[in-house]
Specification:
The structure is a single chain. This protein is mostly beta strands. 10% of the residues lie in helices and 43% in strands. It contains two helices and 23 strands. A five-stranded mixed beta sheet has the order 1-6-5-3-2, with no helix packed on it. The chain has a five-stranded antiparallel beta sheet with strand order 4-7-8-9-10. A hairpin with a 5-residue loop joins β22 and β23. It starts with a helix and ends with a strand. Keywords: Glycosidase, Hydrolase, Signal. Residues 1-30 form the signal peptide.
């Protein structure tokens, strides 16, 4: 065998090895994480705690359900946030179901953890968003901060599914809303961590829209509005899908890939589920590179389970994940 053939074979081997290595790294980075343990969840909100590295997920359920993980893969059930109802719950939403709390959202700011959540009765517009805070999730020194925002049948919006986020200058905002008149955004006072000023509608969708999550990506210069469209809570018959639009302004307009304003029903679907997972939604974006959501497991008769994936961005500045 000639030296040329040996070199050629060696070169091809190197190239193939490099390609395989790159593919392995890319697929590991751009894939859904392998999760074990207790992953029963609905409407998850994900965060990594400062100083400890512990990952936490807060979700819909009795008193706000809690999961924790030391490595982001093996998950354990923690202690629910509320063991009894704050007195103001019954005053603001008299027909809500005791400790049933919906769609919490965790946010770290200025040395504290802010956990927003909603109480309502299914299909009702009489709803409220509340706030509880702590200095350490591990210690669990939670303090009830009371009512943040409420709605009644006289409001256009429905005060559920809160999501706190920062704009490119560090100003704080909250998106919220469900069905009815869609998704709204309002400015948040940094001292009270509660709304200041008016709320502005940014998205509507026939057939259902809720679970908003907004993030600013400094690499693309856009704000991205992630939503769940369709209907949840029907196990494998759920029609939830994760969708997105983007804008150069916090208050929109947010356009989908086809240039349709989300206020007029626009929405680019990122995830419509597959043969194993139905009705993905209730998503939460952590930073700009992690997306957590629930989906209904076909193998477990429609049980809602936690899924976490690496969020990627294509050359045109649109998000995707596998």
């Amino acid at each position: 065998m000639s030296k040329a053939k040996i070199k050629g074979k060696y070169f091809v081997t190197l190239v193939l090895s490099a390609v395989l290595a790159f593919s392995t790294i890319f697929s590991a980075y751009a894939s859904t994480w392998t999760l074990t343990g207790d992953t029963n969840v609905h409407d998850p909100s994900y965060i990594a705690e400062n100083g400890t590295g512990t990952r936490w997920v807060f979700s819909t359920g009795q008193g706000i359900q809690v999961l924790w993980s030391a490595d982001g893969q093996a998950w354990n059930r923690g202690t629910q946030i509320f063991s009894s109802e704050p007195s103001w719950w019954a005053q603001e939403v008299p027909n809500h179901t005791k400790l049933d709390v919906w769609a919490p959202d965790i946010y770290y700011y200025n040395g504290k953890y802010y956990l927003y959540y909603s109480i309502s009765s299914f299909g009702s517009q009489t709803s409220a968003i509340g706030l509880v805070t702590c200095t350490s999730i591990t210690k669990g020194d939670w303090v009830d901060q009371g009512l943040v925002l409420k709605s009644t049948s006289s409001n256009t919006y429905n005060a559920i599914d809160p999501n706190l986020f920062a704009d490119k200058n560090g100003n704080l905002y909250m998106s919220f809303g469900s069905w009815f008149a869609g998704i709204y955004v309002t400015a948040i006072d940094k001292n009270t961590m509660k709304p200041t000023g008016n709320s502005y509608r940014v998205a509507t969708k026939d057939g259902g829209i809720e679970g908003s999550s907004i993030v600013y990506n400094s690499s693309t210069g856009y704000y991205y509005l992630f939503v769940s469209i369709g209907a949840c809570c029907q196990g494998v018959n759920s029609t939830y899908q994760v969708a997105v639009g983007r804008s150069t302004s916090v208050f929109g307009p947010y356009y989908d890939k086809n240039g349709v304003d989300m206020k007029n029903g626009g929405a680019t679907v990122l995830d419509s589920g597959n043969s194993a997972w139905k009705g993905p939604g209730g998503q939460d974006i952590y930073g700009t590179n992690v997306i957590a959501r629930h989906a209904y497991s076909v193998a477990e008769n429609g049980a809602p389970k936690l899924l976490i994936s690496d969020l990627q961005w294509d050359s045109s500045g649109w998000p995707y994940y596998n």
